Amino acid sequence: MRTCLSAAVDEVRAAAALLAMEQRRVVPEVTYAANGDSWMPLPLPSLVLLPGLDGTGILFKPLIAALPSEVSTLVVAYPGHQPLGYSELLPIVLAALPTHHPFVLLGESFSGPLAVMAAATRPPGLVGLVLCASFVRSPHPYIPSFLNGVIRPSLLKLFPRLSQLKALLGGYFSTPLHALVQEALARVAPTVLARRIREVLSVDVADQLAACTATLLYLKASRDFVVPSWNVRSVKRACPGLHVVELSAPHMLLQVAAEQAAAVLTDFLNTCAHFTNHPTPPIPSP
């Protein structure tokens, strides 16, 4: 009897949580500013999305679908057949940034260092920086640098299979997500993936992050085995005031927990909208 009652209570709580999440997504909290005798909603900054290792931006589809209509997004894609490093990708990112209105820059996984590099140039309009399941130094510092030569294009031909196996073992495999991953990887040459992985294993932008003046948010996945939790501590050392929000998800946080991530990002955009009208930004709500 007690077991049945407990199960029923758990179901009610779960339903209530889902309802609250949906209401929060559709009707986000809005920041208002005085305009004469009336109060007008502040326009939200645009959200500029820098993609993960694939570089296509295709994997942002679940997140974009979950964001409220008030959020304007811009996806920056990287060349799929040119093996470019971080320094060569930076001009592409800078050229794509908005120039006439405020924006928040989000770097997912591979693109976290690139987002930091872009923010360090202090582009006009930048009001916030988000690192999602990312890093400022090699996420696996125990890997000797001489092993970089092992990362060859022939090995990366197995990447789609390995990605599927990782999803299966991690318990987040789904047919729609698998289809998105396959679509993205089909557009990227193995030579490009190999170059990007070598860049990841040698990057260090901690000093540039320490000099960053934009409001900063870190989205942490609770079950991230690609970018382990010690990377958050590394980011915090460079930026002690870092605000971290942890979501129950694997490394592919923006795809698996798109609804939750969209809610957090919408709150952060509201915080940044407030910051553009006030000298001291409030602390984002978790």
Structural summary, described in words:
By secondary structure, this protein is α/β, with parallel strands linked by helices. The chain has a single domain (47-275), classed as Alpha/Beta hydrolase fold, catalytic domain (Rossmann fold), CATH 3.40.50. 44% of the residues lie in helices and 16% in strands. It is built from 12 helices and 8 strands. The protein has helices at residues 2-26, 61-66, 86-96, 112-120, 153-156, 159-170, 175-185, 190-200, 206-210, 230-238, 253-256, 258-275, and strands spanning 32-35, 38-41, 46-50, 73-75, 103-108, 126-132, 215-223, 243-250. A 6-stranded parallel beta sheet has the order 4-3-5-6-7-8, sandwiched between helices. The protein has a two-stranded antiparallel sheet with strand order 1-2. β7 (215-223), α10 (230-238) and β8 form a beta-alpha-beta unit. α1 packs across α12, α3 (86-96) packs across α4 (112-120) and α6 packs antiparallel against α7 (175-185). It is globular. The two termini are 37 Å apart.
How would you briefly describe this protein structure?
Helix 1 (2-26) packs across helix 12 and helix 3 crosses helix 4.
The number of distinct β-strands equals 8
Label the CATH architecture. Answer: 3-Layer(aba) Sandwich
**Spatial sequence of strands, sheet with the most strands:** 4-3-5-6-7-8
CATH topology category name: Rossmann fold
Cα shape? globular
CATH top level class name: Alpha Beta
Average pLDDT level: 81
CATH homologous superfamily designation: Alpha/Beta hydrolase fold, catalytic domain
The CA-CA distance between the termini, in Å, is 37 Å
Helix content: 40-55%
* H/E series: HEEEHEHEHEHHHHHEHEHH
Structural class of the secondary elements? alpha/beta
Overall tally of domains: 1
The biggest sheet, with number of strands, parallel, antiparallel or mixed sense and barrel status, is: 6 strands, parallel
Radius of gyration: 20 Å
Strand content: 15-25%
